[in-house]
Amino acid sequence: MEVKNGTPLRTALYDEHKKLNATMIDFHGWDMPLQYTSIIKEHMSVRNDVGMFDISHMGDIVISGPGSDNYVDYIFPSRISLLKNNECMYTAFLNPSGNMIDDTIIYRLSGEKFFLIPNASNIDKIYKWMIDNKKDYDVTIENYSNIISHIAVQGPKSVDVLKNLGMEFPEQFKFLYSDAKKYNAITGKNEIIISGTGYTGEKGVELIVPNELAADMWNSVLNEVKKLNGLPCGLGARDTLRMEKGMLLSGQDFNENKNPYEASISFIVNIDHEFIGKEALMKQKNEYTDIFRGFKLENRNIPRNGFNIYINGNIEGTITSGTVSPILNTGIGLGYINRKYSKSGTEAFIKIRDNMVKAEIVKPKILK
C-alpha cells in the first residue's frame, strides 16, 4: 500500500481493480472497490457460486516471544493460549470499561507466535494499544500491515477454485500453508497462509500473501473463479453478505460503546482468566439493557444507521446497519433492542422517513 501527497491508501491490487473497471470509493482512507458489476450480482455470485474480494486493507500484527501465551490471554477475553498450532479464533479487544474496541481473528502460528488481523480503520490504534499494554510480558509486537495482502475466496464453489489451483482447503477456523516464491514476514518463510475464515457466512478461505505475490495470485484466482460462473466482488457485496448473516461491523455496529454480551457474542468471553476489562464486564453481565438483534421488514424499505425502533409506540432500540437483502428481497437491519422485547418473532416498527414500517425481530443471523 502507499500514500502520496495525502491521497488515499491503496492496496497492492489497486491496478488490478482499475483494469477491471471497478467503481472505487474511499473506505476509511483506503481507495477500495465498491463494485465491479453490481452489488446484487456480486452478492448472488457468492451465495450461489463463488466470489473473490481484495481485503488487503485489513491489518497484520504478529506477537512472538516466550511470554506470548500469557500476553494474548491478558489482552483478550478469550483463552487464546488454548489454541493449537494452525488454529484461529474470532475474538475482540476490550477497553477497561469492558466495551469492544475492535474485533479480530487471531491465529496460532507456533508455540510462541501469534498473528492477528485488526480492522482497517483501527490498525494504528490497535497496534499502539497493544504496545501500551505490553507491560512486562516478554513479547515482540510487529506491524506488517503495509507488506501483506489478503484475498478472500467465498462461496460454495470456493473448494473447486482451490482444488483447481492445486491448494488444500482448510477446515473452518483452521489454516494451512502453501509454498511460495516470496518471503512472507508473517510466517518467516516463503509461503502463503490459506485460512478457513471469511466475512460472508459462506464456505470460503482467505489467502494471506506477500504484496509481491498479490497481483499474480489475484489473477490466478480470478481465472478459476470466472470458469465457475463467479465474479470479483467489492465492498458493497461484502457488506450486504455480512448483514444477512448478522456479522458485526466494527465502528458501525459497535464503537467502544458495547460489550460482548450486548453485541450477542458472549461466546468469546472466558471468565476463567484475568483480562483487560474483566472487572467491569462481570459487573455488566446481568445488568445491560439492550442486545444486538436482526430485523426483517415487511417491504423493501431500508432501515439506516440511527433509525429508531418502536415497540408499543415507544422508542426501544436503534438500527446500526441496514440494507435490502438480495436473497429475501426485503429490507433487513441489525441493531440494538431492549432485551425484554428481543424474543424472535416480536413485532416492532422502524421509523423510515415519516413512515412506521413493520418489522419482525429475529436473531442477528437473519439468513439461516
UniProtKB/TrEMBL annotation:
Keyword Transcription: no
Keyword line: Aminotransferase, Methyltransferase, Transferase
Binding site for substrate: E206
Enzyme class: transferase
A Gene Ontology molecular function term of the record: aminomethyltransferase activity
Catalytic activity field: N(6)-[(R)-S(8)-aminomethyldihydrolipoyl]-L-lysyl-[protein] + (6S)-5,6,7,8-tetrahydrofolate = N(6)-[(R)-dihydrolipoyl]-L-lysyl-[protein] + (6R)-5,10-methylene-5,6,7,8-tetrahydrofolate + NH4(+)
GO terms for biological process, alphabetical: glycine catabolic process; methylation
Any single GO CC term annotated in Swiss-Prot or TrEMBL for this entry: glycine cleavage complex
NCBIfam families: gcvT (TIGR00528), PRK00389.1 (NF001567)
Protein family: Belongs to the GcvT family.
The protein, known as: aminomethyltransferase
